[in-house]
Amino acid sequence: MTKARVIVTLKNGVLDPQGKAIESALGGLGFAGVAGVRQGKVFDVVLEETDPAKAEEALRKMCEQLLANTVIEDFSISIG
Amino acid sequence: MKSAVIQLPGLNRDRDMIAALTKISGKAPVTVWQTDTDLPDVDLIVIPGGFSYGDYLRCGAIAARMPVMRAVAEKAAKGVKVIGVCNGFQILLEAGLLPGALMRNASLKFVCREVKLQIANANTVFTNAYQPNQIIRCPVAHHDGNYFADAATLERIEGNGQVVFRYADGTNPNGSINDIAGVMNENGNVLGLMPHPENLIEAAHGGSDGRGLFESVLGKAA
């Protein structure tokens, strides 16, 4: 089994209204000096594949085809 | 003119769409379930609005990967007309049949109200019953209608006349870039829009401004 974590974030330059709202709420709680918040998604995926290279290749395809919308989102994959 | 309405779990505007197509064309559309891969021989395929798969992952993301959407893509490639309204628009974008993406409304609020729409391109199979730049009324109801495309894509679709509907008179309800409310593909046979023209087609709705879209694509009612 291979355990992997996929992180999907909005691309630079794509407006993130939810991140902005969170940033403003943090300010409201008294956390000064928050210069920016971007919201993303985390997927913990368990694969039967044991070869890390093959697992990463499969995850890349999963990201491109479903987990991320590459029009607006970037993804990163970490294994183990 | 034969039409089909795609049905997926969580869509809830299919009945309104079936009623609109039936009233305006005089013929009831065929309904097609998400697992069907053999679409009937129709001139128009409509993906109605709603909340397919509970908007899980991203609006329309799961629906866009269902078997029926591969069949829709094949039909679209052959020139069959396809319209996606609201969640249907989100599904067409996620399926890669239209350019851009729809994001959470800039206000972060669900909007349910009437807006003004400008017919930004009246020279399409979807809008030829309207006048160029005509302003119509239309209802909207969505949480993720904030249209986005990168600068190069935006320049391309604006230059090609692929922007078909624009929010007008300061009524942009969601922060969409360039006030974009509806876009079509480069071939001009696939259209997606956030507003609900099917909900403004007769006096009982309080107006019939949405009728023009159906009259354009279906031909005037027999």
UniProtKB/TrEMBL annotation, chain A:
**Catalyzed reactions per annotation:** N(2)-formyl-N(1)-(5-phospho-beta-D-ribosyl)glycinamide + L-glutamine + ATP + H2O = 2-formamido-N(1)-(5-O-phospho-beta-D-ribosyl)acetamidine + L-glutamate + ADP + phosphate + H(+)
Could you give a GO molecular-function term held by this entry? phosphoribosylformylglycinamidine synthase activity
Q: Where in the cell is it found?
A: Cytoplasm
Keyword Ligase carried by entry: yes
**Keywords noted in UniProt:** ATP-binding, Cytoplasm, Ligase, Nucleotide-binding, Purine biosynthesis
Give an example GO cellular component term for this record. Answer: cytoplasm
User: One biological-process term from Gene Ontology?
Assistant: 'de novo' IMP biosynthetic process
Annotated pathway: Purine metabolism; IMP biosynthesis via de novo pathway; 5-amino-1-(5-phospho-D-ribosyl)imidazole from N(2)-formyl-N(1)-(5-phospho-D-ribosyl)glycinamide: step 1/2
Database matches in InterPro entries: PurS (IPR003850), PurS-like_sf (IPR036604)
Q: What is its EC number?
A: 6.3.5.3
Q: What class of enzyme is it?
A: ligase
What does the sequence similarity comment in the record state about its family?
Belongs to the PurS family.
Q: Which HAMAP family match?
A: PurS
Task: Say what the protein does.
Answer: Part of the phosphoribosylformylglycinamidine synthase complex involved in the purines biosynthetic pathway. Catalyzes the ATP-dependent conversion of formylglycinamide ribonucleotide (FGAR) and glutamine to yield formylglycinamidine ribonucleotide (FGAM) and glutamate. The FGAM synthase complex is composed of three subunits. PurQ produces an ammonia molecule by converting glutamine to glutamate. PurL transfers the ammonia molecule to FGAR to form FGAM in an ATP-dependent manner.
Protein's recorded name = Phosphoribosylformylglycinamidine synthase subunit PurS
Naturally occurring in which organism (per UniProt): Nitratireductor aestuarii
Q: What does the record give as the organism's lineage? A: Bacteria, Pseudomonadati, Pseudomonadota, Alphaproteobacteria, Hyphomicrobiales
UniProtKB/TrEMBL annotation, chain B:
Where is it predominantly found?
cytoplasm
Give any GO molecular function from the UniProt entry: glutaminase activity
Q: What is its EC number?
A: 6.3.5.3, 3.5.1.2
Q: Does the keyword Amino-acid biosynthesis apply?
A: no
Q: Which Pfam families match?
A: GATase_5 (PF13507)
As for subcellular location, the record says: Cytoplasm
One GO biological process this protein is involved in is: 'de novo' IMP biosynthetic process
Keyword terms? ATP-binding, Cytoplasm, Glutamine amidotransferase, Hydrolase, Ligase, Nucleotide-binding, Purine biosynthesis
Cellular component aspect of the GO annotation: cytoplasm
| Annotated InterPro entries | Class_I_gatase-like, PRibForGlyAmidine_synth_PurQ
Q: Which pathway is it part of? A: Purine metabolism; IMP biosynthesis via de novo pathway; 5-amino-1-(5-phospho-D-ribosyl)imidazole from N(2)-formyl-N(1)-(5-phospho-D-ribosyl)glycinamide: step 1/2
Annotated active site: C86, H196, E198
Catalytic reaction annotation:
L-glutamine + H2O = L-glutamate + NH4(+); N(2)-formyl-N(1)-(5-phospho-beta-D-ribosyl)glycinamide + L-glutamine + ATP + H2O = 2-formamido-N(1)-(5-O-phospho-beta-D-ribosyl)acetamidine + L-glutamate + ADP + phosphate + H(+)
Q: What does this protein do?
A: Part of the phosphoribosylformylglycinamidine synthase complex involved in the purines biosynthetic pathway. Catalyzes the ATP-dependent conversion of formylglycinamide ribonucleotide (FGAR) and glutamine to yield formylglycinamidine ribonucleotide (FGAM) and glutamate. The FGAM synthase complex is composed of three subunits. PurQ produces an ammonia molecule by converting glutamine to glutamate. PurL transfers the ammonia molecule to FGAR to form FGAM in an ATP-dependent manner.
Q: Which PANTHER family does the annotation name?
A: PHOSPHORIBOSYLFORMYLGLYCINAMIDINE SYNTHASE SUBUNIT PURQ
Q: Oligomeric state and partners?
A: Part of the FGAM synthase complex composed of 1 PurL, 1 PurQ and 2 PurS subunits.
Annotated NCBIfam families: FGAM_synth_I (TIGR01737), PRK03619.1 (NF002957)
**This chain belongs to which protein, by name?**
Phosphoribosylformylglycinamidine synthase subunit PurQ
| Lineage of source species | Bacteria, Pseudomonadati, Pseudomonadota, Alphaproteobacteria, Hyphomicrobiales
The gene name reads: purQ
